[in-house]
Design goal:
Elements lengths: L3 E7 L2 H17 L4 E7 L2 H4 L5 H4 L7 H8 L5 E5 L11 E6 L7 E4 L14 E3 L3 H10 L4 E3 L5 H9 L5 E5 H6 L8 E3 L13 E6 L3 H7 L5 H17 L7 E8 L2 E9 L6 E9 L3 H14 L2 H6 L3
Parallel strand pairs: 1-2, 1-3, 6-7, 6-8
Antiparallel strand pairs: 3-10, 4-10, 5-8, 5-9, 11-12, 12-13
């Protein structure tokens, strides 16, 4: 008799979309497989009145899901890769990374078409250290206000007039059929996105070969190489949610180009560097970009945020 595979997922609309997407792909590839969702609330979902950087970072979004897996209530957990810490507990690994959606940030506003149109002193909502430092770098006149909650909550606060604009991930808006809310795509020439942004990953328990075999058809090799490079850079920089780090890689003709960014949240100063290497050297490329950033002073910036 075919076993049932259970997916641990947060209960936010975007997390449920991601889990349902993985469920669909698994059942498409394995027609006799039964897939169920284990819906859970994490500490990151519960504490909405403080910036993530002050309460433990993005790892707060996955700990409860991992506990569910260790207790045998779920076989896999589905995450946005940008929420996955560079260092996982020793029992776990990322078993598959799916094809990436649009990786860039989105400028969302009801009154302005572009970021540059914002009047002096405009109120912009975000809780991302990475976004804050890039906003400060481009527009030190802007008032940046903390914005937590799921996508619908953030949009409602914008619509209620709490902000002149907010910055969200394009991928989340696209997946929730809200791409019409994107007024401007902030490409990598404008904002460097978060490491892994737009990619969905499947976390598994090490050694669970049955599960790894089931999810293998979902692996997207190009996205995997790109995310490996970005996460390797983040690992070398020891970057978490509490420091402003961005990383974005592109793959073309077998060559990976990785751009890394480190910023000073207090001044808006930014260090940004890029390198290119063959795609099979993705991990080493991440290390090299991190070393280059450190040589330009990134370590001092990062230590100033500890």
């Amino acid at each position: 008799m075919e076993k049932t595979l259970k997916i641990a997922t947060r209960e936010s609309p975007l997390a449920l979309w991601q889990a349902e997407h993985v469920k669909f792909l698994l059942e498409k590839n394995h027609p006799t497989l039964k897939v169920e969702l284990l819906k859970m609330t994490t500490k990151g979902d519960q504490i909405l009145n403080s910036p993530l950087a002050k309460i433990g970072g993005k790892g707060l979004f996955i700990k409860e899901l991992e506990i569910g897996m260790l207790e045998g209530r779920a076989h896999i957990a589905v995450h946005s890769m940008k929420d996955v810490p560079y260092e996982l507990p020793k029992e776990f690994e990322i078993g598959a990374i799916l094809e990436r959606e649009n990786p860039f940030d989105a400028f969302v506003s009801n009154n302005y078409e572009t970021f540059d149109e914002l009047p002096e002193g405009s109120r912009v909502g975000t809780c991302s250290q990475r976004r804050i430092v890039q906003i400060k770098n481009k527009r030190p006149d802007i008032e940046i206000l903390d914005l937590r909650g799921n996508v619908n909550t953030r949009l409602r606060k914008l619509d209620d007039g709490d902000f002149d604009a907010i910055i969200l991930a394009c991928a989340g808006l696209i997946r929730l059929d809200m791409s019409h809310r994107i007024k401007q795509e902030l490409g990598d020439g404008f904002f460097i996105p978060a490491v892994g942004q737009g990619a969905v990953g499947i976390e598994v328990i090490k050694g669970d070969e049955w599960v790894k075999e089931l999810i293998e058809p979902l692996i997207h090799s190009e996205t995997t190489q790109r995310v490996i490079a970005e996460r390797s850079m983040n690992e070398s920089l020891e970057g978490g949610c509490s420091v402003p780090i961005g990383g974005f890689s592109e793959l073309e003709n077998g060559e990976l180009t990785l751009t890394g960014l480190v910023g000073d949240i207090n001044t808006g100063n930014i260090i940004k560097e890029s390198l290119t290497a063959p795609q099979d050297q993705a991990y080493d490329l991440g290390k090299s970009v991190a070393d280059l950033l450190v040589s330009k002073g990134a370590r001092e910036l990062l230590e100033s945020h500890e």
